[in-house]
Amino acid sequence: MRNEEQVLKQILDFAQSDENIRAVIMNGSRVNPNIHHDIFSDYDIICFVHDLEKYVRDKSWIPYFGEWVIMQFNRHDEQPENQYVYLMQFADGVRIDLSFARMNMIEPSLEDSLTVVLLDKDQSIPASPDPNESSYITKKPNQAEYDLVVNEFWWVSTYVAKAIWRNEPVTAKYLFEVIVRDCLNRMVAWYIAMQHDWQINVGKMGKKFGSLLPTEVWQELLLTYPGIEEDAIWQALFRAGNLMRKLGVAVAENLEYTYHDQEDERVIKYLYQVMNLPKDAQSFD
User: Where in the chain is the domain with CATH 1.20.120.330?
Assistant: First the structure.
């Protein structure tokens, strides 16, 4: 497997040999001083160019970086006409996300606090602070955002219950693990952030939850991951509700917001009604 020095040399040699590439930056976890790098840490690289379409018209440059296993080509979410990215997983384990961007994307790209300049042929990039996590600090929700997350959690919980009763376990799992889970994880992130005075990066997709949550809360969260059996989904749903209530109240108190406990209580009562409803019921009474 190529080491970091070898990969970066390969990237810089590629950029130096191409007059169209005028500058190169790296961002993401590889430049984060607070992240432990391992063999799966990828390289997020942006090459700033004059002729963007060159790397779409002619893809003969791709094998230069090695034997690849799989690749995706995407356009920038917010600037699809100004930046393309090739996501490349190589057979030796190296992963490179190589973007090509127009020169006018330099300034917006530098807004990412986890950025280092690898190459600047024209000395056009201003000096910037050392890489830090300031762009990724978990922000305080306002009351409306907080209310929306809590309401969505309880609202979609009723959909999970309906799917369980209908014997639709795949649908129930989807609703629980995608929508309900997202709401719960956002509350978990806020709970962690409030304990660090709202000055912490909790990581994407819950990757830091295990190291940042109190042990007992971490165990409560793990117990909300169910199997496919009906009873397992029910138990996980109620455990998730208990955890949402526990953390939601704590976050509300920290921010001096209101946790709508009556909504919580009504939904819990409804969920128990559905759970105890005979499968051949013709009425909800």
Answer: 137-275
- Predicted confidence at residue 50, as pLDDT, reads 95
Beta carbons within 8 Å of 184's beta carbon, 6+ residues apart: 153, 221, 224, 240, 243, 244
Residue 86 zone, left/alpha/beta (φ > 0; ψ -120 to 50; rest):
beta
Domain 4-135 is of which CATH architecture? 2-Layer Sandwich (3.30)
Of 4-13, 31-40, 94-103, 193-202, the one with minimum mean pLDDT is: 31-40
One-letter identity of residue 163: A
Which residue type sits at 125?
Answer: I
Segment 239-256, tens digit of pLDDT = 999 999 999 999 999 999
Angle between helices 230-255 and 181-195 (to 10 degrees): 40
The model carries a pTM of: 0.87
With 0-12 / 13-18 / 19 or more C-beta atoms within 10 angstroms meaning exposed / middle / buried, residue 223 is middle
The CATH architecture assigned to 137-275 reads Up-down Bundle (1.20)
pLDDT at 64: 92
Q: Residue 49 in contact with residue 25, Cβ under 8 Å?
A: no
